[in-house]
Specification:
It catalyses: 5-methylsulfanyl-2,3-dioxopentyl phosphate + H2O = 1,2-dihydroxy-5-(methylsulfanyl)pent-1-en-3-one + phosphate. 43% of the residues lie in helices and 14% in strands. It starts with a strand and ends in an 8-residue tail after the last strand. It has a six-stranded parallel sheet with strand order 4-3-2-5-6-7, sandwiched between helices. Helix 9 (192-200) links the parallel strand 5 and strand 6. It is globular. The protein has helices at 21-33, 36-42, 47-60, 67-80, 85-101, 112-121, 134-142, 168-178, 192-200, and strands spanning 3-6, 9-12, 125-129, 153-157, 185-189, 204-208, 225-226, 232-235. Bound molecules: the ligand CSCCC(=O)C(=O)COP(=O)(O)O and magnesium ion (MG). Magnesium ion (MG) is lined by residues 13, 15-17, 189-191.
């Protein structure tokens, strides 16, 4: 069923929305898991690695946790698919290098890229908000089978720069950064808990209910539901009171 939204900006979730969860869990996750030990031993003193290690120690409440202990924690969080900021930061470092080397390629559902190009050409502003780090998001959009999609995107947000995806304050922080009124901002995600938080911040919401997605919102979600991007009709005429 086609869903019509009057919005000037669209904020995109990645996993389960633009892209297959399986590609993340079956390709990217094992790639990072195999490289954590080396990153933590050989690059322990790099500021980005150190900052993430300190966050891991805080979460564990173990200020002296060494590289082996940190690696074990990262592995456990991966097993549980915990979207924890330091895990995502360290994965982002590893993945950025993997994409740059040509080891990794992103996945986008076939309906997504033509629609994003069309929306962008018509003047919509596109943003990304994912649990994956901004560095991972840039690499993902920069290395797709459909080419480099980064020119389509006006800004990237993650749990470090905006906050947790299930907190309405995070969506308010994104609104402050984009300057686009909440009522003219559409968030597309597969997770009802994220959509609930965006709606609480006054955003428009669209649930992606792709049948092949394991965590996808059900068709009976409280949010307007679309099975693919071709079911989303974006009306770029500015709604009264949104400017
Ligand atoms: C390319 S970003 C890596 C994907 C990832 O690690 C992740 O957790 C995605 O979660 P999302 O918020 O996009 O559902
Ligand atoms: Mg998602």
């Amino acid at each position: 069923m086609t869903q019509r939204f009057r919005a000037t900006a669209v904020v995109l979730d990645i996993e389960g929305t633009t892209s297959a969860t399986r590609h993340v869990t079956d390709v990217l996750y094992p790639y990072s898991r195999r490289r954590f030990a080396r990153l933590l031993t050989e690059r322990w003193d790099e500021p980005e690695v150190r900052a993430a290690v300190e966050q891991v120690r805080e979460l564990l409440d173990e200020p002296e946790a060494d590289a082996r202990r940190v690696e074990r924690a990262l592995g456990a969080w991966l097993d549980e698919d915990r979207k924890v900021t330091p895990l995502k930061s360290l994965q982002g470092i590893i993945w950025a290098e993997g994409f740059a080397r040509g080891d990794l390629t992103a996945h986008f559902y076939p309906d997504v890229v033509p629609v994003l190009r069309r929306w962008h050409a018509r003047g919509a502003r596109l943003y990304v908000y994912s649990s994956g780090s901004v560095s991972a998001q840039r690499s993902w959009f920069g290395h797709t089978p459909q080419g480099d999609l980064r020119p389509l995107v006006s800004g990237f947000f993650d749990t470090r720069t905006a906050g947790p995806k299930t907190a309405s304050a995070s969506y308010r922080a994104i609104t402050a950064a984009t300057g686009v009124p909440p009522a003219a901002t559409l968030f597309l995600s597969d997770r009802a808990s994220e959509l609930d938080a965006a709606r609480e911040a006054g955003w428009l919401t669209g649930a992606l209910t792709r049948p092949e997605e394991p965590h996808g919102a059900s068709d009976r979600t409280a949010h307007p539901a679309a099975r693919s991007f071709t079911d989303i009709d974006l009306d770029l005429e500015l709604a009264e009171g949104t400017v």
